[in-house]
TrEMBL record:
The keyword ATP-binding is assigned to this record: yes
Residues covered by the Bulb-type lectin domain: 37-153
SMART domains for the chain: B_lectin, S_TKc
UniProt GO BP: recognition of pollen
Keyword Transmembrane helix part of the UniProt annotation: yes
Signal peptide, first to last residue: 1-31
A GO term, aspect molecular function: protein kinase activity
Residue intervals passing through the bilayer: 442-467
Origin species: Carpinus fangiana
Pfam families, A to Z: B_lectin, Pkinase, S_locus_glycop
Protein name, as recorded: Bulb-type lectin domain-containing protein
Keywords, comma-separated and alphabetical: ATP-binding, Disulfide bond, EGF-like domain, Glycoprotein, Membrane, Nucleotide-binding, Signal, Transmembrane, Transmembrane helix
């Protein structure tokens, strides 16, 4: 009964707006046409006939400008701001002006480039017509006028009056004010009846929540509803109003409303007066605590409320990864050297950040009398990178720290380990192994890049060229052109560089559980490399340790063993044990390959004495007995660097995948940006003996 009443009031309000627009619609472009009944075989292009308008003229479905191309979506054509309220395939790259949006003869709505289909906007085969409704809902009908598909069922970051968020569904913020791809916050109508806000890529559990309508559940199948007068409320499965977020009753005369989970993670109700042509103004928000959204300042950053505005700061000794983009977080502005120095100098001190709270991901907790003892405990522990001190509890942390914010009412003090030595240029330290005059030569290229929008990581581990009898590590020049120079050090590649190297990921040469391997060429084609594109990796690789056991849905980052794939000698133990296969299986293979490069031999070689025939076991034995010189034979090599590489390799081949570092961390270790702790003995050897 109640639901009917609210719906009726909502339609009355919509009718009013319709009338208003009939008489005062604003038409800005001749390319738009009012065609509320779109028939099959109709099409749109970005430049001519770019949209289908609603009867009122307020809403338009079709192309809008995005970056240097166009996206397909719904926007408010009738107001100067042209506010975008929905985007089709929001994470797809923008299309060029050559694209066509076709309401195909089979009833599907598809995006085409020439004759080639590039995306399906609506899976709606068997449909007869479509319509851009005055409510802002784009609807596709069958021949009996039944609704087959509607944009209201696929919200992105915005809800419009009349649209409801069903149980189990969520809206997700955009990347930026002008870029509508998936951002970092979500509002979820949970199946337990609770309406909760979380960062993206987190489990639906309390430690990650930063806003919730209730502590307990409010029943099954609760929906979030939104009326034309700004009333936001929860209805339970039998249609009873069980919670008001806003009381509604806001003026509807010449005024429209929308709710959006904004880029900064705050869910806001906005109004817009059509007559005054002003901007959107904020009517309501659940909390004015703008620092509440967890992860707003990225990894190693924390949020500070200043003058009711949220601003971000980096931990001491850290700087922004990407200027102007806090989502990318902060990174150390110094190179981490070995924690145990030869001459006994203390190379680090602890810097205090008072009144800040962080997610606690401690690996060890102590009870200490003073904050100073807590800082000291971290200084003396090579694995410790930060500590959180509160009420005589000292929690040792590894980086990155996240969800940081200043909270003056909280007495937690964070101490961060910061280098005291003056920074030295990294290149001379980059020499990993010294070259000598014999002829065997190995060069490794370790290339990684982040794929912004996809949040993926790419790796290239290749370009291994074997010559006779000596080896060295080569550095790729960091300048725009991809080429090899004679200096040493791993080097990062951007996604677009790798795209160029592989000629647009054209030639696939292999496929693994987590991505495909493509052929590429560096150095004007003189060096052939293999580029592996990981396709299922979450953005925050470091967090895998906690989550792998980041709780994840099985289909998200795990593949279960079906059949062993990969080259013998390199495959991780989990392949043999019917254990879940994660991206860490590649890290294992990488570790074996690193040993091969250090020792200049194959991973298994039965021609060698028995104790040396299995490389990883031999390396492990040599490491345990402190006899690393055996590994490099009569090569002239920097002992410290060999030890670093061996330690890294041993971390990579840990039996427990969660102990293996992420590939990103491997890179940081290779670069010397992070310390390489002493690895535990991989216990696969015990079990295979
Ligand atoms: C749209 O047009 C089709 C064919 O022209 C017609 O069959 C259908 O009834 C129309 N739908 C509406 C809502 O007017
Ligand atoms: C735009 O669409 C209308 C109706 O579908 C059509 O008559 C007109 O020719 C189209 N204009 C262009 C430039 O394609
Ligand atoms: C559009 O198509 C024309 C002709 O097919 C082509 O020359 C042009 O490069 C294309 N433009 C883009 C941006 O794809
Ligand atoms: C919730 O919805 C599901 C699926 O529509 C239905 O099976 C279930 O009975 C509903 N629960 C309640 C309490 O209405
Ligand atoms: C909905 O709420 C009403 C009033 O609180 C209650 O009587 C009814 O049982 C609830 N329905 C469900 C399915 O929980
Ligand atoms: C919610 O607000 C409406 C008025 O907008 C009121 O009629 C209703 O009783 C309120 N419900 C609750 C649960 O407070
Ligand atoms: C609307 O907002 C923009 C940016 O915030 C501002 O430049 C513009 O002056 C505002 N317009 C009005 C009418 O307030
Ligand atoms: C690193 O940042 C700190 C401030 O956080 C600054 O004092 C120090 O000079 C910086 N070091 C370098 C190498 O930029
Ligand atoms: C900010 O950085 C994140 C993470 O690196 C990236 O995904 C996002 O696209 C960036 N945002 C903008 C607006 O560049």
């Amino acid at each position: 009964m109640k639901r009917e009443a609210t719906e009726r009031s909502h339609y009355l309000a919509m009718d009013f707006i319709t009338l208003f627009f009939l008489f005062s619609a604003i038409f800005t472009a001749s390319a738009q046409q009012i065609q509320s009944n779109v028939s099959r075989s109709s099409s749109l292009t970005p430049t001519t006939n770019s949209t289908w308008l609603s009867r009122s003229g307020l809403y338009a479905f079709g192309f809008y400008k995005q970056g240097n191309g166009y996206a397909v979506g719904i926007f408010m054509a009738g107001i100067p701001e042209k506010t975008v309220v929905w985007t089709a395939n929001r994470d797809d790259p923008p299309v060029s002006s050559n694209a066509t949006l076709l309401f195909a003869s089979d009833g599907r709505l598809v995006l085409q480039m020439g004759q080639e289909q590039v995306a399906v906007v609506a899976e709606s085969s068997g449909s007869a017509s479509a319509s851009m409704l005055n409510s802002g809902n784009f609807v596709i009908y069958n021949s009996d006028q039944g609704i087959i598909w509607q944009s209201f069922d696929h919200p992105t970051d915005t809800l419009l009056p009349g649209q409801r968020l069903l149980a189990g569904h969520e809206i997700v913020s955009s990347t930026s004010e002008t870029q509508y791809s998936t951002g970092i916050f979500r509002l979820k109508m949970q199946t337990d009846g609770n309406l909760v806000q979380y960062p993206v890529n987190t489990p639906d559990t309390a430690p990650y929540a930063y806003f919730a309508t209730s502590a307990g559940g409010l029943g099954d199948n609760v929906t979030l509803n939104f009326d034309a007068d700004g009333h936001l409320y929860l209805l339970n499965a039998t249609g009873f109003n069980i919670r008001n977020l806003t009381d509604g009753g806001y003026p509807t005369k010449e005024t429209i409303y929308r709710t959006t989970i904004d880029v900064d993670g705050i869910f806001r109700l906005y109004s817009h007066n059509l007559k005054q042509n002003g901007n959107w103004s904020i009517v309501w928000l659940p909390s004015s605590d703008l620092c509440a959204p967890k992860g707003l300042c990225g990894l190693n950053g924390f949020c500070v409320l200043n003058d009711r505005k949220a601003s971000c700061a980096c931990l001491p000794g850290f700087e922004m990864v990407q200027q102007g983009n806090w989502t990318a977080g902060c990174e150390r502005n110094f190179t981490v050297e070995s924690c145990k120095s030869n001459d006994g100098d203390i190379k680090y001190n602890m810097q205090e950040v008072a009144n800040t709270i962080w997610e606690d991901a401690s690996y060890s907790a102590l009870t200490v009398p003073f904050k100073g003892s807590c800082a000291q405990a971290c200084l003396e522990d090579c694995n410790c990178e930060a500590v959180l001190f509160k009420d005589r509890t000292c929690q040792k942390q590894r980086l990155p720290l996240r969800y940081g914010r200043r909270q003056l009412t909280d007495s937690t003090i964070a101490f961060i380990k910061v280098s005291t030595s003056t920074p030295t240029p990294t290149t001379p330290n980059g020499n990993i192994l010294k070259e000598n005059k014999k002829e065997l030569r190995v060069s490794i290229l370790i290339i990684s890049a982040s794929v912004g929008a996809l949040g993926c990581m790419m790796l290239v581990i290749s370009g291994i060229v074997f010559y006779k009898n000596h080896f060295r590590y080569k550095k790729l020049s960091c300048e725009g052109n991809v080429e090899l120079s004679d200096d040493f050090a791993p080097r990062s590649f951007t996604y677009s560089e790798l795209e160029k190297v592989t000629d647009g990921f054209r030639e696939e040469i292999g496929r693994g559980a987590f991505g495909s391997v493509f052929k590429g060429a560096l150095w004007n084609g003189q060096k052939v490399v293999a580029v592996k594109r990981l396709e299922k990796v979450l953005a925050e690789g470091e967090r895998e340790f906690q989550t792998e056991m980041k709780l994840l849905k099985p289909d998200q980052t795990k593949t279960f063993t079906v059949g062993i794939r990969g080259t013998k000698g390199y495959v991780a133990p989990e392949w043999h044990r019917k254990l879940p296969i994660t991206v860490k299986a590649d890290v294992y293979s990488y570790g074996i390959m690193l040993f091969e490069i250090i020792c200049c031999r194959k991973s298994v070689d039965w021609n060698l004495p028995e104790e040396e025939s299995v490389l990883d076991e031999w390396v492990c034995d040599c490491f345990q007995s402190g006899n690393l010189t055996k590994l490099v034979g009569n090569e002239e090599a920097d002992k410290k660097q060999v030890e670093r590489m061996v330690k890294l390799g041993l971390w990579c081949i840990q039996d427990d995948p969660s102990l293996r570092p992420s590939m990103k961390k491997v890179l940081l270790m290779l670069e010397g940006t992070v310390d390489i702790p002493i690895p535990p003995k991989p216990d696969s050897f015990l079990s295979t003996i």
